[in-house]
Amino acid sequence: MKTIKLISTQIPEYWELIKYAASRAVEIDERDLQSALVWLLHELLSDKAQCWVRIDDERKIVAVVVTRLEIDKRINRKALYVHVTFSYRSMPFEQWAQDFELLKKFAREESCDTISFATNNPLLMEMDRALGCREAYRSFVYDL
């Protein structure tokens, strides 16, 4: 297995797989999903976001991660924000750990101070802790 970063011109070719992964991985209200996917597509096509795919030996995509370089306005630091983490099939923790090393290398090359993400998925939280991540804060929403 190998993880590669797609270039923006490859996004249309893989958009259906990316869109499916994002719609399954991102915890967003159904009524906002279409707008979020349009935003994501725009970010990927304009090179403001990065799409990483894990491919198997037959060159089939087995996992998708979408990141974006952002400035954390609370602390004025550059972060690599992980927007989407999705696997089409069960993958060993060691593979995720290797992919995380790749993201860390990319974040360092881009002069990021942190890698951050948000999730309410207990499996992802467990994996994040195992990778050495710490919980920074919790977010709560009141629907009107």
Strand content: 25-35%
What is the string of helix and strand elements?
EHHEEEHEH
Q: State the separation between the terminal residues, measured CA to CA.
A: 45 Å
Q: What about the largest sheet? A: 5 strands, mixed
How many structural domains can be distinguished in the coordinates? Answer: 1
The appropriate CATH architecture is 3-Layer(aba) Sandwich
Structural class: alpha+beta
Unreliable runs, pLDDT <50, ≥5 residues?
none
Nearest-angstrom radius of gyration?
Answer: 15 Å
Count of separate DSSP helical elements:
4
* Strand runs, count: 5
Averaged pLDDT: 89
Q: Largest sheet, order of strands side by side?
A: 1-2-3-4-5
Q: Which word captures the global form?
A: globular
Instruction: Give me the CATH fold name.
Output: Aminopeptidase
Assigned CATH class: Alpha Beta
CATH superfamily: Gcn5-related N-acetyltransferase (GNAT)
* Helix share, percent: 25-40%
